[in-house]
Amino acid sequence: MLSRPSTGRFLEDLKDRIRSAQVRAAVAVNSELVLLYWNIGGRIAAAQKTQGWGAKIVPKLSADLRKAFPEMKGFSPRNLDYMLAFARVWTDEPILQQVAAKLPWFHNCVLIDKIKDEIPRHWQARHAVEFGWSRNVLVHQIESKLYERQEKSITNFTRSLPAPKSDLARQIID
After folding, report:
1. CA distances from 121 to 36, 66, 109, 115, 124 (A)
2. Which of 174, 169, 171 is nearest to 27 (CA)?
3. In terms of DSSP H, where are the helices of the chain?
4. What 3-state class would DSSP assign to 149?
5. 88-115 burial by CB neighbour count: b if 16+ within 10 A, else e?
6. What's the mean per-residue pLDDT of the chain?
7. Out of 59, 68, 108, 141, which could bridge 146 as a Cys pair, Cβ 3.0 to 4.6 Å?
8. pLDDT given for residue 77 in this prediction
9. 143, 135 in Cβ contact below 8 A?
């Protein structure tokens, strides 16, 4: 015979499961959005290659997408330029899915803006995912030259220190 769970513990367990499901759903939505932006960026690059830079693809596409999807944000010319840059810096889809698609869009924009070289960009992205860095922490790590310092000194920090609590999931939801 099963005993009746205590109401307090039963409710807390359900709340934990609901919160966990909300975070997983937000992460899945974020991943799909980042992959969509990558795809849009790739298509813009292909269109610019065939039609030429002077065809003003980005401003025209921005206007068309805003008209077709007025309830959605993210189709400004500036964001479309980020999508194009994003597709150009993440050319390998499997790596994109393993790293960049696990980060919120604006983390990726920070990586594009602040790191021009591929290896440090991938390193920072992998660490942002692994340690759950918020965008502010990511910016701080880039500006404090964490990659360069880590490359100069070999430590066992990643093996011996626990990862900080992740506020990455909270930032995706916010």
Report:
1. 20, 31, 11, 6, 5
2. 169
3. 7-51, 57-68, 77-89, 93-98, 105-114, 118-131, 135-143, 146-152, 157-160, 168-173
4. helix
5. ebbeeeeebeebbbbbbbebbbbbbeeb
6. 86
7. 141
8. 97
9. no
What the block records as the tokens of 48 is 């610019």
Q: What is the pLDDT of residues 15-45, one digit of tens each?
A: 999 999 999 999 899 999 999 999 999 999 9
User: pTM for the whole thing?
Assistant: 0.77
State the Cα–Cα distance between residues 141 and 133, nearest whole angstrom. Answer: 9
Q: Is 2 helix (H, G, I), strand (E, B) or coil?
A: coil
Q: How confident is the model at residue 157 (pLDDT cuts 50, 70, 90)?
A: very low
* DSSP label of 55: G
Contact 147, 124 (CB under 8 A): yes
Q: Report the phi/psi class of residue 138: left, alpha or beta, with left for phi > 0 and alpha for psi in -120 to 50.
A: alpha
In whole angstroms, give the CA distance from residue 73 to residue 14: 33
147 token code pair = 């990659």
Rounded mean pLDDT, 37-66: 93
Q: Reduce the DSSP state of residue 70 to 3 states and report it.
A: coil
CA distance 57 to 45: 10
Instruction: State the greatest distance between any 2 C-alpha atoms of the chain, in Å, as a whole number.
Output: 75
Task: Give the pLDDT of residue 6.
Answer: 66
| pLDDT tens per residue across span 71-88 | 999 999 999 999 999 999
